[in-house]
Structure formats: structure tokens, C-alpha cells
């Protein structure tokens, strides 16, 4: 698994082969295929095993600050070469189930913060927090996937401002 992550970071997902992973790990190709049916499955398990997992618990602060941090963290994550290459391979292999597992913890953390905001009266009690979390994180993942525009802190600020304005129903 370590060999696969090292190689995907060095070669990118298109340059990664099972043969190269086997050579780097000092095992035969069949050994790898015995445990993982594809590059995507191998990289997914390696990523979960070796990358930092879980999200920091929310700290007490303003809703806007928490959401800006969540969006900025998502941007930081998808712009790391290792994460980028693993996820692009999973997209290429149409492994949406595995890709969702990598991104789900961040979405769940945002949903939890929005639920807390509901309890505190910061946003409407009848807000669909799942849709609101997707509204915040979806543009990050779209920009990452399409490489349509830069992912930066100013984008996070703008995105949070727009989403909070719509959630609060204000100008």
C-alpha cells in the first residue's frame, strides 16, 4: 500500500501500474491482485490506512468561521497531490462508492455544524442540512474535478458568504 501511494504521488494516476507497484513492493503482480481487484481498490485502502483520518471536532466559534474552515479544509485536501491522484483514479474507474467514502466524513462534519446552528437559532430550524452541506462542498469538488478555476481561500470566503446569505434569507 505504501508503494502504491508513493508511486501515485510520483507518477500520477495515469502513470501508475500494478506492475510498478509490485516491483516497488518487491512482490509479484498476482500477490497484489489476490488482495485488490484494481488500482483504485488498492489506492483506496492505502489512502484510508496511511492518510490522516477523521475531522477535528468543531470548536466553538461563529457559524461563518466554522463553515469557512470546513470549505478551506476541503480545498486543502483536494489540492494535495496524493489525494488528488487517488481520487482522480477512482473517478476514472467509476468508483463513486469509494470516492464518496473519502469525502463523506467532511460532509458529515459540516452537516453536524449546521444542525448545531439550527439549535442555536443561527439558521432556520427547518433547513435541509444535507442539501446545505452539499451546497457548500459541491462547488469545491466541482472545481477540483473540472479544474475550472483556482481553489483558494478567497473562493472559500465567497462561497460561505453566498451560502450563508441564502440560508439566512438576508441581503
From TrEMBL:
Please name the SUPFAM superfamilies in this protein's record: Homeodomain-like, Tetracyclin repressor-like, C-terminal domain
- What positions does the domain HTH tetR-type occupy? 1-54
**Keyword Transcription listed:** yes
- Statement: the UniProt record of this protein carries the keyword Transcription regulation: yes
Q: Which UniProt keywords apply?
A: DNA-binding, Transcription, Transcription regulation
Pfam families found in the cross-reference section: TetR_C_11, TetR_N
Tell me the InterPro entries matching this sequence. Answer: Homeodomain-like_sf, HTH-type_TetR-like_transc_reg, HTH_TetR, Tet_transcr_reg_TetR-rel_C_sf, TetR_C
> What does the record give as the DNA-binding region?
17-36
Molecular-function annotations in GO = DNA-binding transcription factor activity; transcription cis-regulatory region binding
Q: Which Gene3D superfamilies match?
A: Homeodomain-like (1.10.10.60), Tetracycline Repressor, domain 2 (1.10.357.10)
Protein name, please? TetR family transcriptional regulator
Organism of origin is Saccharothrix coeruleofusca
Amino acid at each position: 500500500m505504501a508503494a502504491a501511494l508513493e508511486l501515485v504521488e510520483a507518477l500520477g494516476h495515469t502513470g501508475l501500474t500494478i506492475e510498478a507497484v509490485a516491483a516497488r513492493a518487491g512482490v509479484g503482480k498476482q500477490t497484489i491482485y489476490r488482495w485488490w481487484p484494481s488500482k483504485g481498490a488498492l489506492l483506496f485502502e492505502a489512502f484510508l490506512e496511511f492518510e490522516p483520518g477523521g475531522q477535528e471536532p468543531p470548536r466553538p466559534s461563529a457559524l461563518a468561521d466554522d463553515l469557512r474552515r470546513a470549505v478551506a479544509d476541503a480545498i486543502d485536501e483536494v489540492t494535495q497531490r496524493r489525494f488528488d491522484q487517488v481520487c482522480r483514479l477512482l473517478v476514472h474507474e467509476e468508483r463513486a462508492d469509494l470516492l464518496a467514502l473519502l469525502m463523506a466524513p467532511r460532509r458529515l462534519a459540516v452537516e453536524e455544524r449546521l444542525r448545531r446552528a439550527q439549535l442555536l437559532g443561527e439558521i432556520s430550524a427547518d433547513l435541509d442540512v444535507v442539501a446545505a452541506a452539499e451546497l457548500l462542498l459541491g462547488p469545491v469538488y466541482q472545481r477540483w474535478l473540472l479544474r475550472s478555476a483556482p481553489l483558494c481561500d478567497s473562493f472559500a470566503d465567497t462561497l460561505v458568504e453566498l451560502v450563508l446569505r441564502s440560508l439566512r434569507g438576508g441581503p
